Amino acid sequence: MALMGNEAIARGFVEAGVSVVSGYPGTPSSEVIVTLHEFGAGSEIYVEWAVNERVAFEIAYGAAISGARAAVTMKAPGASVALDPLISSAYGGVEGGLVVLVADDPGPHTTQTEQDNRWLGPLAKLPVLSPSSPQEAKDLAVAAFDLSEELKLPVILRTTTRVNHAVGDVVLGPVRPPQRFREFRKDIPRFVRAGMLFNLERHRWLSSRLELTEGVLTKLYPGANRVEGSGELCVVTEGAAYNYVREVLEDLGVGASVVKLSLLYPPPTEFLEDALRGCREVLVVEELDPYLETVVKRVLYELGARAPVYGKESGHLPREGELSRRLVAEALVSVGWVPKTAVSPPAGTYPSPPPRPPPMCPGCPHRNTYLALLLAIARAGYRRDEVPIFGDIGCYALSFQPPFEAIWTEHSMGASISMAMGLKVAGYGGPVVATIGDSTLFHAGLQPLLEAVHKRVDVLVVVLDNSVVAMTGHQSTPAWGTTESGRRAKPISIEEVVRALGADRVYVVDPYDLDLTVEVLTRALREPGVRVVVARHPCALMEVRARGVTRRYRVVEDRCTGCLACVRTTGCPALYYSNGRVRVSEGDCVGCGLCARFCPYKAFEVVEVG
C-alpha cells in the first residue's frame, strides 16, 4: 500500500498487537492516532486523545505494566511534558511492550523549537530507534514492541517530519490480535520510587538490560544497522538524512561505505567498530545536533583509529534547520571527496516569492476575539503598549501578525497565564492579559490558573474556545460528549471548572457578538482579581464542514472606494485587492460578516447560498 509514514506507524502498531494507544495532538505526529480512529472503529483497541502528553504516557504505562501492549504519541515538545514519568518508567520497566513515538521537527515547520529528542536515550536510559522511510517506520514499530517486551523497557521510536509525512510503498505484514491485560502483581521495589535502595537496585537492573539491546535488536530486525557500498570513505547517517546521502552519492558517482543506523541508543558499539575499522575519513550526516558525531568519535578513539571525522562540529554541515540534497553535496565538496565542478549551481535565477505566513482562517472566531480585546483596551482608556497580552500555543498565536499584532509572547503550553502572573508579581502596575485556547487550558493552563487564584494576582485570562484542537487537524477536547472512536464521554465545562478553581469573575461570550464581547472585555480590564472571559464560538472550518455555508458576502463595486479598511481591520484572507477595489474570494468566504461591519461605505452585501 502507498502509506504516509504516520499511517505506516499506525499499521505497525496494529501488526504488533497493540491494545492501548494514547497521545496528544501535535504535528507531525497527529495522523497516527487519526489513522487508528479512521480504520480501527469497532476494534478491541483503546485509541483516544488524552488531555496532555504526561497523562497519555501514564495511561500507556499503566497498561504496559499489566502485560498489555501500549503506545503513546507526541510531537517534540510533548516529550518534555512527559519527561518525569518517562524517566521513572525506565526503573520500573514493563511487562507488555510500550512504544513511545516522539516526532521531531527539523526546520522547524510547525514547532516552536528544533528539539532533538535523540538525547532522550542517554537521559532516560531507554532504547531509541530511528526509521528512514514509511516502510522502516512500520517495520521498526513492530520491532520496537518486540524489543520492549524482551528487554522489559519502554522503547522510544523517534521520527522526524520528513519520515512522518513522506509517502511510500509499504509491504504489510500479518496482524496479531491485540495483547491485553494479563496480570498485575504488587511489587514494591519495582514500582514504588519512594525507596532509595530500591531505586539504586533498579538502576543496576536498567543498566544490565540496556547492555542487551544491540544483540536483541539484531536478532529481531537484522537490517536495523547495516553497511551499504564499500570504500575507505565512510558516511555515517540515520533517519531522513540517509535518503539524501544515498541519492547524492549515486548522482555524483561517489564510491563510499554508507553506515546506516536505526538504533541510536544505546549506540550499537560492536557494529560501529566493525563498520568503521577500515575507514580513512568519516562524514557524519545527521539533522539537528551532532549526536551521532560524538558517538562516532568515541568509537574511533577506542579503536585507536586516526580517521578524521567531519560533520556539524567541524562546520561542514549546519547545526540548524533541515538537510537537503544540496547541503549534503556541498559537504562532500568541502571535505574534498568530489570536485566543486561536480555540483552544478542552481539553474537560472528566480525572484523570491513573497512571504506568505499562515493566516487565521476566514471566519475564525479568534479574529473577532482579538479585535474585541484591542477595541476594549482602547475603550478602557489604555494604549496598546500599556497592556501586555501574553499568548499561548494554538491557532490564536497567529494574532502576532498584522493587522492585530496582539500577543507579545508565545512560549509553551499553558505559559501565558504563568508568565502574565510573573509580570504582575514583579511589579507591573497596569492590566495584564493572558490569552489561551480551550484545549491548551485543559492541557496545561489549569494549574497556572489555580496558582493565580491562590495567590490573588490581578490578571485577565481570555479563553479562546473554538471547541476543538484546531491547528493540529480538529481533534477532540474534554468538552466533547463523544470521542473520535465513538466512545461516550462526559463533557467538561470550562466555566464550571474555572468557577470551581475560585476565579473571582467568569464571563462567557460569543465573539461573533462583537459589541457584547467588547463590552465584557472592557469591564473585565477595569476589574481587580482573576477574571476569566470564555470567548466561545466553534471553529469556522469545523462549522463549514458540518453544516455548509448558508451565506457569503460580495462587494458592490460602485460603493467600494478601495480604502482597504476591511482588509486592514480584519486581515481576512477571503479578501483581496484587484483593479482598485476589494474583492471577496467566493470559495473562501464563510459569511461571518466582519468585513461588512468595518466598511465605512457599506460596500458589502449578503448573498444567500442555495
What is the strand arrangement across the widest sheet?
Answer: 3-2-4-5-7-6-12
Radius of gyration: 27 Å
CATH class placement of the largest domain:
Alpha Beta
CATH superfamily of the largest domain: Thiamin diphosphate (ThDP)-binding fold, Pyr/PP domains
Rounded to the nearest angstrom, the distance between the terminal CA atoms is 40 Å
- The CATH topology assignment of the largest domain is Rossmann fold
Give the fraction of residues assigned to helices.
25-40%
**Discrete helix count:** 23
Biggest pleated-sheet summary: 7 strands, mixed
Low-confidence stretches: none
In terms of DSSP E residues, the strand content is 15-25%
Q: Overall mean pLDDT score?
A: 94
Work out the count of structural domains.
4
Structure class: alpha/beta
Q: What would CATH call the architecture of the largest domain?
A: 3-Layer(aba) Sandwich
Features:
610 residues; alpha/beta; six-stranded parallel sheet; 4 domains; Rossmann fold
Notes on the structure:
There is one protein chain. The chain has 610 residues and is an alpha/beta fold. It has four domains: 2-220, Rossmann fold (3-Layer(aba) Sandwich), CATH 3.40.50; 226-342, 3-Layer(aba) Sandwich (Rossmann fold), CATH 3.40.50.920; 365-543, 3-Layer(aba) Sandwich (Rossmann fold); 549-608, Alpha-Beta Plaits, CATH 3.30.70. The strands form six sheets. The chain has a seven-stranded mixed β-sheet, sandwiched between helices. A six-stranded parallel β-sheet has the order 16-15-17-18-20-19, sandwiched between helices. α1 packs parallel to α7. The two termini are 40 Å apart. The relative contact order is 0.08.
